[in-house]
Design a protein that fits this description.
Order of helices and strands: HEEEEEEEHHHHEHEHE
Radius of gyration: 58 Å
Helix content: 40-55%
Shape: elongated
Oligomer: single chain
Largest sheet: 3 strands, antiparallel
């Protein structure tokens, strides 16, 4: 009876241990590779997984996007300048079976591949082109790495160069060159501003002269119109007065002019009471000489 109890206890303990070895939990961002007797059997998704105790084993593969930091290295450009370059590689596993069985150490392989291709890409470019062509280098390096890692079930999503550092003496020379270029652009902009200001000033003065000339012309035109309007009648009246003077002139001659006659208005003789006035006429000086 005691022996039977011990056997049952051992069986129960073995069952507990087997259950513990057979149950696995796969997280949301993982894939599980079931290995049975050393061979790949199938892939499991996230959740609870039951394995055959002591026969099956499980390999977890992280499916999240990850990054590899490529350590700084010295690279020689096409114009024989040594620059220090480092980069960051972003990748994502798309085929967990290939990622696990086709490459032994993906991080080391991708880092070595990136360093090699960085030397090739930067070695074909001049220093100035290297400093201004980060996007081109990033795109080219990503395409090379993506093509190389495709058989490994990995997708390279992005490659970013963190820094490209030339030697200190080259940096100082570039700083002086940039300063000279900025001063040159500033002088050019200042000269252009002065020229445009002079042009605008000249145009303004010309427009002002035109406006003054137009104003003077209009003023003269108004004066001429006023003169024609106001002095024409007065000239006619003056002419009438001269005619009246010639007609009425005589020796000791007197004329009685009606108060309503036009000549009264011309000569300014209207008294306002309607009575006629006697207008003495100056005797005409004789132009004849005595014999």
């Amino acid at each position: 009876m005691l022996f039977t109890g011990i056997v049952l206890a051992l069986v129960f303990l073995i069952a507990i241990v087997a259950l513990a070895f057979s149950v696995r939990v796969i997280k949301q961002y993982e894939k599980g590779l079931v290995i049975r007797l050393g061979r790949y059997d199938h892939t499991t998704d996230a959740g609870l997984v039951f394995l055959i105790p002591f026969i099956d084993s499980l390999i977890r593969v992280d499916m999240r996007e990850a990054l590899i930091n490529v350590l700084p290295q010295s690279v020689i450009t096409a114009d024989n300048v040594v620059v220090t370059v480092d980069a960051v590689i972003y990748y994502k596993v798309v085929d967990p079976v290939k990622a696990e069985f086709e490459i032994q150490n993906f991080n080391f392989a991708a880092t070595t591949l990136a360093q090699t291709n960085l030397r090739n890409l930067i070695g074909d470019k001049q220093l100035d082109e290297t400093l201004t062509a980060r996007d081109v280098i990033n795109t080219s390096l990503r395409e090379v790495l993506d093509e190389a890692t495709n058989p490994w079930g990995v997708k390279v999503t992005k490659v970013e160069l963190q820094k490209i550092d030339p030697p200190q003496d080259i940096t100082n020379a570039m700083s002086k060159q940039m300063k000279a270029e900025r001063e040159k652009r500033a002088n050019i902009l200042e000269a252009q501003g002065l020229r445009e200001a002079a042009i605008l000033k000249a145009e303004g003065e010309a427009q002002a002269r035109l406006l003054r000339a137009d104003a003077e012309a209009k003023s003269i035109e108004v004066v001429a119109q006023a003169a024609e309007k106001n002095f024409t009648e007065r000239a006619k009246d003056l002419r009438r007065f001269e005619v009246a003077e010639k007609v009425l002139a005589g020796n000791s001659t007197k004329f009685i002019i009606p108060s309503g006659a036009d000549i009264i208005n011309v000569l300014g003789l209207d008294t306002g009471n309607g009575t006629p006035q006697v207008l003495p006429i100056r005797p005409r000086r004789s132009t004849d000489t005595a014999d």
